[in-house]
Amino acid sequence: MQHSEQSSETSVIQRGGRKVPSKAKSFIDAAVEARRTSLLEYEAEQVAKQYRIPVAKGGLATTEKQAVLLARGIGLPVVMKIVSPDILHKSDVGGVIVNLNSFPEVRKAFAEIMRNAKRANRKAEIKGVYVQKMAPKSYEFVVGGLRDPQFGPTVMFGLGGIYVEIFKDVSFRIAPVSEEDAQSMMKEIKSSQLLTGFRGSKPLDTKAAALVLQAVGQIMFDFEEIDSIDINPLFIYPRGVMATDVRIILKKPPERKNDQVH
Amino acid sequence: MSSPQYDSHPTLDAVFKPESIAVVGASRTPGKIGHEILRNLKLSGYAGTVYPINPQAGHILGLKCFARIEDVRGQKVDLAVIALPAQLVQQTLESCGRVGVRAVIIITSGFSEVGKAEEEAKLVEIARTYKMRIIGPNTFGIFYAPSKLNCTFGPNYVLSGKTAFITQSGALGLALMSWTTEEKYGVSSIVSIGNKSDVDDADLIEYFAQDEDTKSILIYMEGLKDGKRFYEASKEAVKKKPIIVIKSGRSQRGATAASSHTGSIAGQDRVYDAAFKGAGILRADTMTQAFDWLQAINENPIPQGENIMIITNGGGIGVLATDKCEQLGLKLMDVPEDLKAQLQETVPSYGSLRNPIDLTANADDETYRRALSLLMHREDVHGIIALFCQTATIDPSLVADAIATVDEGAKATRSKPLTAAFVGGHLSEVAYKRMLEKRFAAYPTTERCVDGMYALVARRRELLSAGLLSLQGH
């Protein structure tokens, strides 16, 4: 099983003698400790970054002012998303605003998102608003990881976007995924012509996409605590790829034997 | 449950090449399992010693009986077959262990398949203690052609061939024992794997991968116990021998509702599919398809490229074949000019020199012989599909013989894969089965014939991607 190249962050020795990125481990450990069943989006994206998955730059803002500062640093246009462990389907509650092209828009969006979040769930714990660089438009693909009870870590690739569960134009491979496996699974989907180029459009960077597939498999191997991973969308360009929404779902915490009733 | 548990894991030679076999629960009554197994052992020509174990009988089928397995003296029993009621199996297994039996086939059912997992686990524990391997429980036994070993209560006569067939279904497997013979599909082995309490698919894959008399492996499976080990074992074995799987249960409940897209899309069958693809296993949809593929793979060399040429005596079946080729992603080559010139002597002007080459309905065995001869010697032709539509003017068997002898000649100098179809009535059936007996991949329909060629091309692609194919071919 190959180790994907990791960032220059210090690694720690995970139980089992395997080196894993320390930052990723601390996010996951903290979530497990708090009995959460998923990482927050920006945490998941940090984990992805540690495995060299290109993720759109972003930061967490807790105030309007901070949001603008972040937007300045990241560069317009940006998207902004609510960050709350209690709000899973952000778009559905108006918790996501895209294509913000000026700082006044950023300020307005911050207020609107916070309002929408509170309206959707008054008791929700709000960590803030994630300000992220908006990725250039391209075709949207999905990369996923799951832990099959029979075969262990398994990787998924396919046509992404909001209709992914309807079209299910996806392929799977058991991890660890070689570059060859990755290339062949990308050829398998019905929409594979999007990758090879059609109607004058350029072929897309399947080599970079293959690295993402391998990295997702590696994350699943490194962290038994992870139940599944979604990267949707993964934008694939003629050169390079960009992930803009990474979700990491953790295994359900074991039932506490002595849960007290208040 | 798999070999990592053993430090010195006994090979399955005790199962397939035993020098002596004890049938515990042997019966005097024809029709009873304990009788039929003995009968099959005797009639199949097995050369080793058979010990029926039955406290009430003196002799069964001319074989001296023993009251208990411990009473067998002078020779160690390699393999014991247990056909006793479930409540007696455990103590019998103990006895087998104590006298040094190396492998046990437990025919008896009524264990994990009916929910008695603990009782089954106990059997495995006993086996581990004595370093015995268990096949089963809940199995109809095994057949292994090279040892002339028919240790089943199925049909006696089984056609010998090159495919090892592992089946998880008892009833289906038994039925197939008759079917394969009738349809002229030979097997090197049939293993009724039963509940897989000990010996599982991975163990058998590893065994047959190194078995000289087995050229391909077919598995009918319903589920796996150790998917990871199966995956690794298959990936390795596929480098040597093709593996074809029929996995039932496609329509089982799909993925459970999950909080991730990935989780909710990944149904059980899609992941099995991924495992098969990743391991280089060919997945067949039906038993017929599986054996069609095997016939092609067992009796042909791997094609040296993907250029397929079709010859036919009828335009209709030619088009059907073309459609099927397209559906399966097979490449029909263009007929080069020089070949057209050569074919002109054989093909009437109202035929066709395009691919499929239409020899017309007037074609006889000579026509086929001449056309095939030309194709066989061309390096740019990598695979040949020969189609024959039954007409009133020529006996299909003559055409079959012509095709058979042309290929034989070519095999001496250069090998080229060929699949043939004989479409028509009874005479066509006789013809294609005749070709099967002569070890050719022949079929009663165009589609199955093309499918056979597909299997060869798929095998080539798999070997290529594993880096195992030199440019000279297999």
How would you describe the overall organization of this protein?
The complex is a heterodimer of chains A (262) and B (474). In chain A, 43% of the residues are buried. Chain A has 262 residues and is α+β, with helices and mostly antiparallel strands. Chain A folds into 2 domains: 18-54 and 137-250, 2-Layer Sandwich (D-amino Acid Aminotransferase, Chain A, domain 1), CATH 3.30.470; 58-133, Dna Ligase, domain 1. Chain A contains 8 helices and 12 strands. Chain A has helices at residues 22-33, 41-50, 64-74, 103-120, 164-167, 179-188, 193-196, 206-222; strands spanning 11-13, 19-21, 58-61, 78-83, 96-100, 128-133, 139-148, 152-159, 170-174, 226-236, 241-243, 246-250. The longest helix of chain A has 18 residues, at 103-120. In chain A, a hairpin with a 5-residue loop joins β1 (11-13) and β2. Chain B is of the alpha/beta class and 474 residues long. Chain B has 2 domains: 3-290, Succinyl-CoA synthetase domains (Rossmann fold), CATH 3.40.50.261; 300-465, Succinyl-CoA synthetase domains (Rossmann fold, 3-Layer(aba) Sandwich), CATH 3.40.50.261. Helices cover 39% and strands 18% of the residues of chain B. In chain B, strands 9-8-11-10-12-13-14 form a 7-stranded mixed beta sheet, with helices on both faces. The longest helix of chain B has 20 residues, at 446-465. Chain B is elongated. Classes of the chains: A alpha+beta (262), B alpha/beta (474). At the A-B interface, β7, β8, β9, α6 and β10 of A face α7, α8 and α9 of B.
Can you count the beta strands of chain B? 20
Radius of gyration of chain A: 19 Å
Order of helices and strands of chain A: EEHHEHEEHEEEHEHHHEEE
Count helical runs of chain A.
8
CATH architecture classification name of the largest domain in chain B: 3-Layer(aba) Sandwich
Would you identify the CATH H-level superfamily of the largest domain in chain B?
A: Succinyl-CoA synthetase domains
